[in-house]
């Protein structure tokens, strides 16, 4: 039997594509790995942010005139909901603490009852023995 | 009589069935809707804003201390429970662990002020408390993956809750080494690149930009996943796995603006975590405060987080019991192979109080 591996065009395509991908990415790496590219990106980001800022300001102003809610109003409402959630959480934690202290108290009471029972038993025993010795 | 030609073995034999399967699967993959994510059985324990704490009950509980997963803020955590048999969470529940997972959810514009401190103090801490309460255990094991590992480590350094074990996987702790172009890192650190105004305007970093950022760092041009699919499309199991992985890779989440700013400025630019200068709430997040048993896993083929970024945690913590392991895998390969559950079990079983 031949141990030759038959040619698989799909596998070869994949191997070549790996090479192409690596070459293209290495090229991009070399092309962008410099201070000028970083500064240009920073400038582009800043221009984009300023454009967005102006657009947002105009949008807010227009929405104010038209009495329309904006994302800032949504933020305020969402914050109120989160505050309510946090208050409920805090209450729940208080309830846990109360529950825990109640449990520990009831355990304490149970142990006191147990001890009391023992004391009563002992007192009764002592009493009966005292009566016996008196006789 | 047939004669052998010198080209025999070179020209591929035409396998009609295999080719039909290949092209049918390929056609289906490109045209069918995305695969649905089927989770292991789980219950919702707690919910706040968009975050949810999930509980994955164990079929046969063997260990007292539950596992609490903290995933990255960049992606959705269903990679840990992506498909039956390869699911990390399913594997661990089958091994007898109670598992909790904090899903951060997808932040909206209204979450622009959520920073790392809010995530840690108000979300993670509360979720851990809830998990401890829900499980009835006295201690917990934290498992952090990728940036989730960084968050888990920061939390462990300021936690008042009883953390018995800390497991961090492909975790960036030291932000000085950087996988991408070095001039970019230099630009960010020197102030040539400033993203504050950009973040203020966007509120939350859109998922497309998050995806673009990772692409730019790792591989800006990426198409070999498709040629790989073409070469193995005759295999139904591979196609299913590929579809799920592809869905997860494209399923990015937005990143809350304040958290992104802290990540870029406090962690990446000033590397405050490793210097012990990071302030969370009103506490100093000093990794030296970590006394929990520590297990660190790095991937030798990881093209996002370098080993040098994870290893420093070993010298920074005060833990007596600490283990560092390097596995021959990529950044998400560990979660996909099913190996992760076995590794966690091997290390944590003796540290989880058997019932």
UniProtKB/TrEMBL annotation, chain A:
According to the lineage, what is the superkingdom? Answer: Bacteria
Where, if anywhere, are coiled coils annotated? 81-108
Give the keywords, sorted: Coiled coil
- What's the protein here called? Poly(R)-hydroxyalkanoic acid synthase subunit PhaR
Q: Which organism is it from?
A: Neobacillus vireti LMG 21834
The organism's taxonomic lineage, starting at the top? Bacteria, Bacillati, Bacillota, Bacilli, Bacillales
TrEMBL record, chain B:
Cite a single Pfam family from the UniProt record. Answer: Abhydrolase_1
User: Which InterPro entries does the record associate with it?
Assistant: AB_hydrolase_1, AB_hydrolase_fold, PHA/PHB_synthase
Q: Enumerate the spans annotated as AB hydrolase-1 domain.
A: 88-333
Superkingdom of origin: Bacteria
PANTHER family (UniProt xref): POLY(3-HYDROXYALKANOATE) POLYMERASE SUBUNIT PHAC
State the protein's name: Poly(R)-hydroxyalkanoic acid synthase, class III, PhaC subunit
Q: Which organism is it from?
A: Neobacillus vireti LMG 21834
């Amino acid at each position: 039997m031949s141990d030759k591996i038959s040619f698989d065009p799909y596998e070869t395509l994949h191997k070549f594509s790996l090479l192409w991908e690596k070459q293209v990415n290495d090229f991009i790496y070399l092309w962008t790995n410099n201070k000028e590219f970083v500064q240009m990106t920073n400038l582009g980001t800043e221009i984009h942010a300023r454009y967005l800022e102006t657009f947002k300001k105009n949008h807010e102003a227009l929405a104010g005139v038209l009495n329309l809610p904006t994302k800032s109003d949504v933020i305020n409402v969402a914050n109120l909901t989160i505050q309510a959630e946090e208050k409920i959480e805090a209450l729940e934690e208080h309830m846990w603490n109360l529950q825990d202290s109640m449990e520990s108290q009831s355990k304490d009471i149970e142990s006191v009852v147990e001890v009391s029972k023992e004391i009563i038993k002992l007192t009764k025993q002592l009493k009966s023995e005292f009566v016996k010795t008196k006789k | 009589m047939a004669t052998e030609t010198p080209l025999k073995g070179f020209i591929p034999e035409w396998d009609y069935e295999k080719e039909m399967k290949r092209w049918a699967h390929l056609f289906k993959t490109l045209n069918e809707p995305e695969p649905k994510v089927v989770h292991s059985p789980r219950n919702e324990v707690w919910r706040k804003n968009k975050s949810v704490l999930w509980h994955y009950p164990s079929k046969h509980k063997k260990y007292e201390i539950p596992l609490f997963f903290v995933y990255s803020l960049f992606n959705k955590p269903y990679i840990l429970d992506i498909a039956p048999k390869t699911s990390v969470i399913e594997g661990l529940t089958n091994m007898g662990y109670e598992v909790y997972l904090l899903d951060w959810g997808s932040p909206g514009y209204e979450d622009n002020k959520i920073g790392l401190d809010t995530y840690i103090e108000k979300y993670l801490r509360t979720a851990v408390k809830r998990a401890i309460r829900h499980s009835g255990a006295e201690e917990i094991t934290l498992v952090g993956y990728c940036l989730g590992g960084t968050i888990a480590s920061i939390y462990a350094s300021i936690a008042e809750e009883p953390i018995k074990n800390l497991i961090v996987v492909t975790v960036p702790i030291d932000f000085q080494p950087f996988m991408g172009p070095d001039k970019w890192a230099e630009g960010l650190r020197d102030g040539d690149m400033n993203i504050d105004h950009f973040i203020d305007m966007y509120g939350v970093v859109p998922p497309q930009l998050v995806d673009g950022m990772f692409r730019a760092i790792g591989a800006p041009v990426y198409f070999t996943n498709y040629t790989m699919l073409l070469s193995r499309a005759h295999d139904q199991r591979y196609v299913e796995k590929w579809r799920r992985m592809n869905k997860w890779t494209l399923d990015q989440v937005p990143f809350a603006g304040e958290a992104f700013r802290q990540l870029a400025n406090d962690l990446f630019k000033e590397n405050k975590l490793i210097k012990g200068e990071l302030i969370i709430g009103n506490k100093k997040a000093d990794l030296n405060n970590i006394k929990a048993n520590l297990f660190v896993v790095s991937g030798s083929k990881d093209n996002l987080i370098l080993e040098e970024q994870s290893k420093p945690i070993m010298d920074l913590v005060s833990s007596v019991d600490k283990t560092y392991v390097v596995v021959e895998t990529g950044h998400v390969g560990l979660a996909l192979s099913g190996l992760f559950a076995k590794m966690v079990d091997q290390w944590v079983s003796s540290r989880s109080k058997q019932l």
